[in-house]
Amino acid sequence: METSRRDLLGLAVGGLGVIGALGVLYPIVKTLAPSASSLAGALVEIDVNSIPEGQIRVVSWKGKPVFVVKLPQAQWTGKAKEEKNSKLLQGQTVFALVAVCTHLGCVPLWKPQGEAEFNFPVFHCPCHGGFYSPWGDVVAGPPPRSLYIPPQNIKDGKLLIGEAGFIKELT
Ligand code: FES
């Protein structure tokens, strides 16, 4: 009889301990876990008119930083090592690029007035001296390929990142 009462007390104390541990762990796990919308690659909508020509905006898509670039009609005068992105984005003056350098993952900086020997707009990755054209094609430095382009569409003056349109998939 005495033993079973002690066992019962032990079980009750153990149960309270487990409940207490869950109470502490739940908020931590919830904070660290990616949100359902970022896992699903939720649609990110940007009002194109809110970005001045020649400027960019940084947004988050699927947990990654993404540049939204708005170019003036004027042609870019620089030369890129490859033209993958500029071909894919031909005719678009507003588009999104994944803002992660393809060398080692830094976030490049937008330099609308140019930088170093480049007197035209470029993205400059200061980590190891990578340079990209406004379309994200490599102009100089160690990046092995152009910036990635997320799927995107334009509708009613809004750029929709995550919706297959003029770019159908991450490329
Ligand atoms: S991480 Fe961008 S150049 Fe190295």
Précis, in short:
With 171 residues, the protein is of the alpha+beta class. Helix content is 23%, strand content 25%. The protein folds into 2 domains: 2-33; 38-161, Rieske Iron-sulfur Protein (3-layer Sandwich).
Give the CATH superfamily of the largest domain: Rieske [2Fe-2S] iron-sulphur domain
Are there runs of 5+ residues with pLDDT below 50, and where? 25-39
Number of helices: 3
Shape: globular
Distance between the termini: 71 Å
Helix content: 10-25%
| SSE-based structural type | alpha+beta
Number of strands: 10
Strand order of the largest sheet: 5-6-7-8
Proportion of beta-strand residues: 25-35%
How many structural domains in the coordinates?
A: 2
Mean pLDDT: 84
Which molecules are bound besides the chains? Answer: FE2/S2 (inorganic) cluster
Describe this structure in words.
The chain is of the alpha+beta class. Helix content is 23%, strand content 25%. It has two domains: 2-33; 38-161, 3-layer Sandwich (Rieske Iron-sulfur Protein). It has helices spanning 2-32, 36-39, 84-88, and strands at residues 44-47, 56-61, 64-70, 94-98, 109-111, 122-125, 130-132, 138-140, 152-155, 158-161. The longest helix is centred in the first third of the chain and has 31 residues, at 2-32. It is globular, with a radius of gyration of 24 Å. Bound molecules: FE2/S2 (inorganic) cluster. The site of FE2/S2 (inorganic) cluster has 12 residues, from loops.
